[in-house]
């Protein structure tokens, strides 16, 4: 809605002629103006005398210009030299989410889903450009005819905690806990604000709003909002976004993938478009698929790379970790600025845009490596059922492997090619070329010679219906890219495999999910991707997967820092997919992302134990 100009409002900003006011915040205003051709634009004017905002805008403007515009308002120009800096952006004709909810009540059904997916897509695009929004709220979500648009990013006054005074209405009620404590805004702060905004869309009120700012701050820091008004399939993603600890929140891309998966049975053109953009292109199957070996080192790794905690998700930069998985040498390593991704945005948009019902969904800012593995079209596999952890077990408890020992392999031998014999487990069967596998120095090694390569090793003599597999792994260097490690609990000849997949990103984060693989190397997530808090890929890691029973098969998995107490199961489910309800063999797989720049990388395996659980 356009409001009349005030007497002291300027008549123009450079070549843009002012026509009215679109909105006004505590220290900034947004005007409707027209360019020399008569086209409408929005002009946001920064606060007077705010040199910090001016400096930040100058620093981030190149990245802001590169943000994909299909779910945002494209930045057209800016002036930073005058007494009041301003930014000119595309004019979006539509009510704000705040106006829509105030006038028409909470959103429901497809209207709510469109706002969830469209805004998560916009945040993913903003973060991929290396900037944080800093002021995500209902007033900055515009409901345009072609779908939700997020506006106002990168050009907002950032108050310190001690300056939050006055009326609580507006932005303060959507600040993250770390912001009200005086810390700088980040992509993780945007995710928190997104969660609060989505709850507003579904309920009609802010989850943290109150009559005074001190009460608002207290609620942000200590209050867990009621999520029951949300549809059940949307509650988990909002709960994750509203985590008080920024490190525990998912990234915007993780949110988007979760939304698509949680609505797998929902008929919606919007969601169908998003799902389509996650399907791997025919023939684009890296790693072990080239040997015809079903190891779980294919599509899910690209899916994990898309779902994992990207370099920009916490810091706004794409960077290298301080150390590899158990990498020797001092911590450190260069960081690549966010601008290194800038040119990728246009290329990714060209390859991953899908239009449906007026909303264009952009999912893969890093290219085809990030296409997610989905079930094949027409697949009829029943949905997995989530099951609890072992009765009586508590988080952090050392459960340990029990049951009849089947294999213990400490790799205390020398094998120049392959893995040799695993004692009672018989001979290891490894992938090709065999020269990339070796046993030396008390450990087994799989060398990944180039980006986009994978490897696998199995024990064909261990053909069981019940297996409990655990091993420790590390790498020979800091991995400047994504590494994926798979613990294969059951590989069934002529059918597929059940596996635990670990996603290790360049920031040192580790994620876990359970996967089902078919003969075509199409992989289906049967538990959501989950970042494991407190776990780092910069030290050796131990993983354990247990696969038991048939019709249904029960799967459980956990991962922890080697040498620390074993936790309880972190992922658990059951599955009844036909063909996999049979005996199978265990194994190990790995895959190196195509974006890795310091190959070769060697995965080091040790202390492998397999038992037959009771």
TrEMBL record:
Name the domain of life.
Bacteria
Q: Which InterPro entries match?
A: Kinase-like_dom_sf, Prot_kinase_dom
Tell me which residues make up the Protein kinase domain: 16-271
Write out the ranges of the annotated region (Disordered): 278-338, 371-406
User: Where along the chain is composition biased (Gly residues)?
Assistant: 321-335
Alphabetized Pfam families for the sequence: Pkinase
Molecular function (GO) terms listed? Answer: ATP binding; protein serine/threonine kinase activity
The record's keywords, sorted A to Z, are: ATP-binding, Kinase, Nucleotide-binding, Serine/threonine-protein kinase, Transferase
Acetylation found in the keyword field: no
> Which protein, by its recorded name, is this?
Serine/threonine protein kinase
Lineage in the entry?
Bacteria, Bacillati, Actinomycetota, Actinomycetes, Streptosporangiales
């Amino acid at each position: 809605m356009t409001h009349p100009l005030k007497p002291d409002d300027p008549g123009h900003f450079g070549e843009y002629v002012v026509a009215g006011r679109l909105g006004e915040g505590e220290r900034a205003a947004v005007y409707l103006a027209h360019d020399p051709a008569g086209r409408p634009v929005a002009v946001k004017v920064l606060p007077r005398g705010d040199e910090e905002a001016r400096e930040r805008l100058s620093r981030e403007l190149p990245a802001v210009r590169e943000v994909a515009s299909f779910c945002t308002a494209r930045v057209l120009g800016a002036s930073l030299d005058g007494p009041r800096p301003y930014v000119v952006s595309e004019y979006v004709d539509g009510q704000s989410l705040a106006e829509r909810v105030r006038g028409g009540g909470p959103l429901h059904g497809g209207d709510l889903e469109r706002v969830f997916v469209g805004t998560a897509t916009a945040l993913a695009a903003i973060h991929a450009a290396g900037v944080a929004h800093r002021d995500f709220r209902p007033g900055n979500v515009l409901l345009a005819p072609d779908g939700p648009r997020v506006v106002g990013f990168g050009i907002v006054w950032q108050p310190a905690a001690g300056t939050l005074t006055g009326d609580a209405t507006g932005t303060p009620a959507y600040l993250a806990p770390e912001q009200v404590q005086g810390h700088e805004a980040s992509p993780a702060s945007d995710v928190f604000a997104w969660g609060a905004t989505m709850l507003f869309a579904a309920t009609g009120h802010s989850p943290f709003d109150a009559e005074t700012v001190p009460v608002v701050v207290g609620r942000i820091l200590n209050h867990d909002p009621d999520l029951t008004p949300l549809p059940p399939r949307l509650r988990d993603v909002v709960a994750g976004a509203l985590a008080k600890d920024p490190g525990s929140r998912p990234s915007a891309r993780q949110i988007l993938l979760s939304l698509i998966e949680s609505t797998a049975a929902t008929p919606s053109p919007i969601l169908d478009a998003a799902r389509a953009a996650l399907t791997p292109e025919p023939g684009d199957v890296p790693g072990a698929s080239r040997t015809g070996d079903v190891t779980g080192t294919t599509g899910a790794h690209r899916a994990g790379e898309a779902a994992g905690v990207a370099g920009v998700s916490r810091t706004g930069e794409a960077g290298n970790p301080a150390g590899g998985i158990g990498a020797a040498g001092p911590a450190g390593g260069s960081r690549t600025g966010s601008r290194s991704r800038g040119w990728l945005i246009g290329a990714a948009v060209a390859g991953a845009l899908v239009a449906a019902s007026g909303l264009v969904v952009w999912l893969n800012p890093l290219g085809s490596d990030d296409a997610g593995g989905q079930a094949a079209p027409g697949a009829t596999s029943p949905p997995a059922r989530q099951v609890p952890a072992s009765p009586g077990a508590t988080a952090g408890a050392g459960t340990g492997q029990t049951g009849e020992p089947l294999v213990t392999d400490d790799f205390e031998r020398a094998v120049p090619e392959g893995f040799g014999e695993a004692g009672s487990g018989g001979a290891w069967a490894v992938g090709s070329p065999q020269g990339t596998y070796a046993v030396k120095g008390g450990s087994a090694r799989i060398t990944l010679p180039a980006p986009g390569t994978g490897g696998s090793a199995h024990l064909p003599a261990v053909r069981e219906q019940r297996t409990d597999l655990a091993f420790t792994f590390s790498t020979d260097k800091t991995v400047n890219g994504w590494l994926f490690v798979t613990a294969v609990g059951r590989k069934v000849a002529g059918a597929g495999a059940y596996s635990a997949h670990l996603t290790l990103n360049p920031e040192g984060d580790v994620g876990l999910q359970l996967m089902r693989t078919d003969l075509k190397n199409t992989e289906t997530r049967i538990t959501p991707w989950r970042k494991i808090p407190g776990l780092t890929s910069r030290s050796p890691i131990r993983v354990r997967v247990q696969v038991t029973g048939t019709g249904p098969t029960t799967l459980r998995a956990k991962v922890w820092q080697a040498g620390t107490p074993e936790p309880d199961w972190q992922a658990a489910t059951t599955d009844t997919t036909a063909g996999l309800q049979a005996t199978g063999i265990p194994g190990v797989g790995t895959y190196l992302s195509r974006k890795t720049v310091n190959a070769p990388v060697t995965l080091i395996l040790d202390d492998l134990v397999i038992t037959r659980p009771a």
